[in-house]
Amino acid sequence: MNASRPLLEVKGLQKWFPLSRGFLQSSRFVRAVNNVDLIMRKGETVGIVGESGCGKSTLGRCILRLIEPTDGEIWFNGTNVSSLSKQAMHKYRRNMQMIFQNPYDTLNPKHRIRKILSEPLIAHRVPKEEHETLMVNILERVGLRKEHLERFPHEFSGGQRQRICIARALILGPELVIADEAVSALDVSIQSQILNLLQDLQEQMGLTYLFISHDLSVVQHISDRVAVMYLGEIVEMGDKQSFFQKPLHPYSQALLSAVPKNDPDENRERIILQGDLPSPTNPPSGCKFHQRCHVAMEKCKTEAPLLKEVEGRQVACHLYA
Amino acid sequence: MKPLLEVDNLCISFGNQATMRHVVENVSFHVHAGESLGIVGESGCGKSITSLAIMRLLGGNSRVSGQIRLNNKELLSLSENQMRTIRGKDTAMIFQDPMTSLNPLLTIGKQIGEVMEQHDNLPRDEVKKCVLELLTRVGIPRADEIYHEYPHRLSGGMRQRVMIAMAIACQPLLLLADEPTTALDVTIQAQILDLLQKIRKENRMALIMITHDLGVVAEVCDRVMVMYAGQVMETADVRTLLRTPMHPYTKALMMSRPQSAKENRRLNTIPGSVPSPEHFPNGCRFAPRCDQVMPICYEKTPALAPAGEGSACRCWLYDENKESKEVLV
């Protein structure tokens, strides 16, 4: 592991989606991702959690530049990839790949697995004679067989399809893999198979994962570090162990307490959040969480807290000022 | 005391003579008034089909046999018109996806009011008053504004609240909730489960909670029924099931949750995947994936045998003489 230089460094990343604007009207934006800083070291797994609409998927896509960030820098292996041209970026995509949520929608139903797996190879000009070995190798790695190459996606179960998606993402030998809700659509018994597979592949191939999920128990299982997002901002980030033992930000506390208990008699204090996630077009002033926060103070309504180092973690909350 | 709902030997199959698929086989259970039963299983185990059969909502290509008695009325022998007086009034259902189960062309007030107009014959202003009361009861703020809104203006959690309001509009005796919180975030899920519990206590309503999430079961259910490949594998009191599961499938299901593997890094898995109805194996349907499989499992289907108070388990492991009679629990 290279401790000195992180594999990925995201600095002040922003993505604002413009809304339609009328004549003489000031332009309005959906602030999907707001000033996110993130550092990932080689071989680690960072989990990103948050409710739907908090910007976690947008963040993942911005890092790969599948959507162009509005502002901020993305450093990958010491190169600022956010300033690269499209052609130059193409080369870096080889090292950064994505696994999507729904294995039913992300495989072309008209293509055989052979074609699905060879597409990344063709796009990155891998010599044709290497294709066959690469494809067979990766299929075996993800627990499928050579004869599956000639089949169509509909011949596979959900878990097998997700294996194909993983094979497609890994066939070029990337360093960073962004898994966006990669196991959320799967049944529990299949989900555990895929989680084990992801961990085995990480060990064998030295992968670094950015694991985006709304499922806290999955994130707790797979991650080394966890970041909690709320309305486009990271509100808490830290080591998994200490985070799950004692979440510091009131939002993290509420999120953890909302996870269903394992036993009917388990006595756990539950913080039930009032209302829904506010609209990101018109976020509340001050701390964005103050309207739903159970320990909000006067200060929270006016002043936005910054990420600060608290107990070895980063927390954005006035409680710890 | 007689149970509110009794289901006996429910069998559901699809297709014609040549392509007949038995999707649900010999499912029997009961629910008392005020009780909540969880039906747990993976996709394709027949849990949703069972609930649709109770509501008589299955299409014409299905064949349903067995008995479904609600309050001593045999639902399967009712005509469609008679069934309409029961649906929404005595039983109601909440579906998984609140985004697609509301009519996008009707206002919230109109959709909820429709149920009451159909069943209670109330004057219009009375209906409106009731709808506003319901909306407040399910925790929707600014009820009088929301009354005139269309579904697309509401968030997922709010829509699910509207679905619940609609389902409890006529104070049903039995509420079937098919994965009511699967599409929602954990924080909203906690709100909705809380709400369902509150309504159940207030109305003394029976609840059938269909879910794949054992955590949800631990939150709201009194008893649990585990289904696999169209059969009931185990039923038990919720505490018994979660603490001392008997059937290898229930055990494996619990062990494969990420929560169960905090110390060691690897998760327990169930090899393979759920068979589809045309590939249901002979003998025990879980046998090919079971880690405690014995030769007999591939030959003979085990019966759902009683195992302690209110519990039953379909497994050869717990059958000493290997030929116990099927029981109804």
Give a description of the structure.
The complex is a heterodimer of chains A (321) and B (329). Chain A folds into two domains: 230 residues, P-loop containing nucleotide triphosphate hydrolases (Rossmann fold), CATH 3.40.50; 61 residues, no CATH class. Chain A is an alpha/beta fold. Chain A has an eight-stranded mixed sheet, with helices on both faces. A four-stranded antiparallel sheet of chain A has the order 2-1-4-5. Helices cover 31% and strands 21% of the residues of chain A. In chain A, helix 5 packs parallel to helix 6. In chain B, helix 3 packs across helix 4, helix 4 crosses helix 6 and helix 6 packs parallel to helix 7. The C terminus of chain B is likely disordered. Chain B folds into two domains: 217 residues, P-loop containing nucleotide triphosphate hydrolases (Rossmann fold); 76 residues, no CATH class. At the A-B interface, helix 5, helix 6, helix 7 and helix 9 of A face helix 6, helix 7, helix 8 and helix 9 of B.
H/E element order of chain A:
EEEHEEHEHHHEHEHEEHHHEE
The largest sheet of chain B has its strands arranged as 6-7-8-3-9-10-12-11
Number of strands of chain B: 12
Give the helix tally of chain B.
11
| Number of distinct beta strands of chain A | 12
Strand content of chain A: 15-25%
Shape of chain A: globular
Mean pLDDT of chain A: 90
Main interface: chain pair and counts = A-B, 42 and 44 residues
